[in-house]
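Example record used in the benchmark description.
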Amino acid sequence: MGSKEKHNSKYIIEARFVIDGVVEKHDVIGAIFGQTEGLFPKEFELRELQKSGKIGRIDIELKSEKDRTEGRIIAPSSLDRAETAIIAAAMETVDRVGPCDAKVTIEKIADVRIDKREKILERAKELMRDWVVKETHDIEKLLTEVSREDKLVQPVHYGRERLTATPDISKATEIILVEGRADVINLIRSGYTGIIALEGVKVPNTIINLVKRKEVTAFLDGDRGGDLILKELMQVARPKYVARAPRGKEVEELEPEEIEEALSKRVPMEEAEGLGELANLAKELSGTLEAVLLKRGGERLGRVPVSELVERLRERKEVEVVVFDGIVTGRLVDAAAAQGVKTLIGERIAEGVKVPDGLRVQAFRDFS
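Model output (structure tokens):
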């Protein structure tokens, strides 16, 4: 598969914070890094620990109302127990975020390995139950399954880089480009042909040449690795269409109906550039009852309460994308279309809403 952004954590630091004022995620992150800087030798500061991979990406969840912000901090650690405890204690020293007073409290330090062991135990029990059930299957049915598997198309190596592909790749006029060998095999099992794998983040010359000659759909994982590969493709080998697995899933693990749905939602390459950012924005807005207005290219124009969205839209002419934590109604669709909005993304879509040509309407679940 393509390159993945992973962190081999042993522990997870979980903290809660309360801030007397309205702040955003980057304010909290900045306060954590800034106010713990200088407490320890340089190699033990958070920035250096992240660079070396000993502290993973720090996630912030927050919600603001009535001039008060509350939320959680999640920080993965591969340090030892004592070092992890010191980092957690250091986080509790943060007492201001921007100009606002703040209070950070460590809730717990979870041992990821214990959780993994419990999951392994449960999975082992499940496998044992399945094993017993499978052993009771009729031998004739097992032989039929084996025979069917044997008749599946087997992948081949294609091009100078020996990329994994289906045997018809040179003759196919429409091609599905995936990240790795496991993706090719899963699509074969689901009945698809004309498939080839990138086999890495760097785009091979074979793929560059195929994109020039054929109609290519890039079908990528719904994770950070897929985001990185999409950026690489945009620079060196732009496919005609882009499809993504549901956020957090990989193509190799999708069921046939999930593959069909994902491919049916493919979009032209020109429209795919901001999908990763929009997914993150939908997650950020969930539960806030707020909306973010974006210009062409992704520049933020402002953040407003959902109750004021229609009125604010009528005041702005340059809005191209709206992402909001609310219901897409016919009234909002009409207002957006009238102002030339191209994309409208809400928490969910009301029944019976008619979408005019030129406006794309999606729900948060399309990005999850």
